Amino acid sequence: MTTQTTRSTDMNLMHENLARAQMSARLGEAQQSRRGHELARALRLSRKAERAAQQARLALARAL
Question: In terms of domain of life, where is this protein from (predicted)?
Fold first, then answer.
């Protein structure tokens, strides 16, 4: 191979590696974001369940 072809191939490989690294970083960010959304949703549902349980306890106490 000529020096020019080798450089061209090396540049293409560098660009491919950079693209792979960026894709990997974006996938990691997306997964982290998804985990954050899932945690927030779980906390909301937990608070909602606690409120429902508290209302049920109050309703039971009033009925007695």
Answer: Bacteria
